[in-house]
Amino acid sequence: MNTQERSQAADFTTEVKLQGFKAYEIDSKSGGHSYNRKDFYKISLNTGKYIFHYADRSFETDETILFFGNPRIPYSCELVSSINEGYACLFTEDFLKLSDRSESLLQSPLFKIGGTPILQINWEQKAALASIFQKMIAEQDADYAFKDELIRNYINLIIHEALKLQPSENTPEHKNAAVRITSVFLELLERQFPIERIDRPLELKTAQDFARQLSVHVNHLNSSVKEVTGKPTTAHIAERIISEAKALLQHTDWTIADIAYALGFAYPTYFNNFFKKRTGHIPKSVRALSL
């Protein structure tokens, strides 16, 4: 990205931050917009052939897909065909959460790191979804006093249409204290990612760190998380750090020492040992596979 492109990306990011929302059309000539993905959620309807990199996974897609991007999960997209068309909308978490019902939608499998961010769309679904995006684009430039609420309804409608294609049992239900504290822990864990700056290393790295942040005893946190998820707190933390480490190894040119520091390790050796223990590979070998 050259200086002019960086300036345009900064201007576009500032514009969307101020408005809280932006919808636009994608075509093969103009493409999309450059922006800081850490600032916005994204929903896009894409027709073409792409390779999506999402955390440490990759998806090859063709025809039409519906994509859900979470600002806390690293992702990128490679266009591998001459066709690139569709629609996209970016929105901040605060914009959508002005609607009380929307918070649970952001916790759906569509935006979760272990969920499915890409859905294959048939022609009938494409037409219906394209119509919603077109309404959002028209509405954002209108003078209607309640257009933000109407746009939120359109976003929610797209999410609900996508959730119909997801198993209903994946939708979280906050039934008791253990579920609530686990939900807050998982959200706090995700809020630390993606790591985009070497000089801002991971702050919360242990169960004790999270317990202090949540103002609960570490034993209570551990028992709640284990009861709800079946896995200990340390396992969730380790898996998320490993996932981020793989993404950084595959999608950045940072040195392994830089990645180790950014992930909160005092020495690269500690990071190497941690990574090998949980993956069976050393970081250098994972990076070599992505070259």
TrEMBL record:
UniProt keyword terms in alphabetical order: DNA-binding, Transcription, Transcription regulation
Signal peptide coordinates: none
GO molecular function terms noted in the UniProt entry: DNA-binding transcription factor activity; sequence-specific DNA binding
Superkingdom to which the source organism belongs: Bacteria
InterPro entries with a match to the protein in the record: Homeodomain-like_sf, HTH_AraC
UniProt entry tagged with the keyword Transcription: yes
Keyword Disulfide bond: no
Domain HTH araC/xylS-type per the UniProt entry, residue ranges: 183-289
Gene3D superfamilies recorded: Homeodomain-like (1.10.10.60)
PANTHER family: ARAC-FAMILY TRANSCRIPTIONAL REGULATOR, TRANSCRIPTIONAL REGULATORY PROTEIN
Protein name: Transcriptional regulator, AraC family
Upper lineage: Bacteria, Pseudomonadati, Bacteroidota, Cytophagia, Cytophagales
